[in-house]
Each structure stands twice: as structure tokens, then as C-alpha cells.
Amino acid sequence: MQQPSIKRRKTKVIKFAPYYSQNFGKAYLGNSLQLIKNLNDNSINLIVTSPPFALTRQKEYGNESADKYIEWFLPFAYEFKRVLTDDGSFILDLGGAYRPGLPVRSLYQYELLLKLCKTVGFHLAQELYHYNPARLPTPAEWVTVKRIRVKDSVNMVWWLSKTPYPKADNTKVLKPYSKSMKNLLEKGYEAKLRPSGHDISDKFQKDNKGAIPPNFLEPQNFLKIGNTESNSAYMRRCKKAGIKPHPARFPRGFAEFFIKFLTDENDTVLDPFAGSNTTGFVAETLQRRWVSFEIDENYLIGSKHRFGDEEID
């Protein structure tokens, strides 16, 4: 299967060779800021990633503090924009953070968004919210001890693009109709002016084979959008091999939603912070070409177990 064209520069000191390959893609070990320089301009149709968040406490998978996060992230952003096709999209899943020692929020997500748009030159196609009801109630001091805040259950998701009109088709990600909508389609609907002032015509009765999904991504609406895969094939294989799984695994349904929504078969998907390589695995199952970068070899070794012979949940 053809892979993205590669720029091989004599000045590069890294060896751009895959750590492992599948039918549609390849995973690479190394710093993604160095590895991505080997990819040609306009060679990637979609970037889906969840980088280490800006947190007040260091995690084992590495993360920058909120006050340094933008400076750390911008060099990646310029490379992301360079390698994206003109109709490509960049999906950034980013969790929030509290200011150190205070029950108030950091603004780093919004400051980063403004930089990405006003400085790097991305367009904000849409903002979405990734809901994870299984998230723990942290920080404990404010949520469970002093009881002055509620627990965080969403990540901000920025859908960014190089132009105002990236490739997208929401008919590929329709969700099942509700029971009430099914009844309406069966029994019919009287066209009339609603109290809100909206004029509902008879076109409202058309069966479009599903409802347009909202920008609030809920577990019940999408395949395994949550991150509670405690007994998934990936986890079972890692346990069997004696490998510690990635502690912040990318939800399979989340990657599936955006890959279906924003790409076609044989398009190329990149995850520059691959972790357990859920993005690459989903791209493989959907017959998209993919490239994944991961700096931690242990996580990359574990990610190979997503592509085993055992049936995936």
C-alpha cells in the first residue's frame, strides 16, 4: 500500500524507518517534531491527536505546565499546517487544568486556540466537547475535600483547518433516530409554525437514515467514545505480554467519528502523539492510510498489540 511521500534530507540525523507496519500504515519511534519534517507538504488529509495536556502535576507520559504549553506546542502546529492538504483538518483533543494551588481555571486552551488561529493561520471550523462520564473527580482538594467545584467531564476539541472549507460529510456519521423521531416519521407531522418562531415544513418528515450528530460527543451516541476499556483486546494482550498499557488511551469511537466524518478511503491520517495508537488502528480498520509517531518505545511496543489476531471488542 502506497505511503505518504517522504522528503529525505541529508542533514537529518534521525533514521526515518518504521518501528512496525500494517497493511495501510506505519508507526515510527521518535520525537514527532523531528519525524514530521520527513513528511512532504500537503501530504496528510487529517491529523487526529490528543497531546499531553497542561497539568499541574507531572504524569508518566509527559506533560508541560500551562504557562509553558503554548511555547512548547507552537513548533508542532506550524509543522501540522505545513503537512496538511488544503482541504485537510486538524483535530485537537485537549483537557483543561486548574491554576496551581487555586480553585480557578487556567486559560491555556483558549490562549492556544487564539495562537493557532491568529498566529499560525488555522481556521476554527468548529468546537466540540468530548464527554467522559467515567473521569475521576479531580483535583480532589476542590472537588471531594472542600466540595467547592464539580468534577470535569469534558475535553475541549478544536476542529481546525487550513481553509474555511475542509473536506467533511456528516452523512457518514449519522446517529440512530430517537424513538420519538421514529414515531414521527411513521405517523407523519403537521407542518406548522412552532412557538419558538421556527417554521417547520413538511420536509421535516423526510427520512434521512439518521440524525445529524451534535458537537457534544456522548458515549451513548458513538461507538466506545468513552475511555473505560478495562477489558479490551488491547488491555488483554498487553497483560498477557507483561506490558504496561498507556495510562491515557485514546478512545476508539472518538477517532472513528472524525476519520469517518473528515476523510475518504485511502486518505492519510496522522497521529503525532500516538500513545497506544488507537488512531492508527481505527484508520487501518477503515482502510485509510496512516502514520503514527510516538516518543516512548514502551508505549509503541504495547500499541502493536492493537493489531493482533484476537477479536477486537
Uncertain ranges: 5-14, 58-62, 223-228
Q: What's the number of domains?
A: 2
CATH architectural category of the largest domain: 3-Layer(aba) Sandwich
What is the third-level CATH name, the topology of the largest domain? Rossmann fold
Helix content: 25-40%
Secondary-structure topology with pairs:
Elements: E1 20-21, E2 25-29, H1 32-35, E3 44-49, H2 66-83, E4 84-94, H3 108-120, E5 123-131, H4 140-145, E6 154-161, H5 179-187, E7 192-193, E8 199-200, E9 216-217, H6 233-241, H7 252-262, E10 268-271, H8 278-285, E11 289-294, H9 297-303
Parallel strand pairs: 2-11, 3-4, 3-10, 5-9, 10-11
Antiparallel strand pairs: 1-2, 4-6, 5-6, 7-8
Helix pairs in contact: 2-3, 7-8
Provide structural commentary.
- There is one protein chain.
- The protein is 27% helix and 18% strand.
- It is an alpha/beta fold and 313 residues long.
- It folds into two domains: 20-173 and 215-307, Rossmann fold; 176-210, no CATH class.
- The chain has a nine-stranded mixed beta sheet, with helices on both faces. A two-stranded antiparallel sheet has the order 7-8.
- Helix 2 links the parallel strand 3 (44-49) and strand 4.
- Helix 7 (252-262) packs across helix 8 (278-285).
- The longest helix is centred in the first third of the chain and has 18 residues, at 66-83.
- The model is unreliable at 5-14, 58-62 and 223-228 (pLDDT under 50).
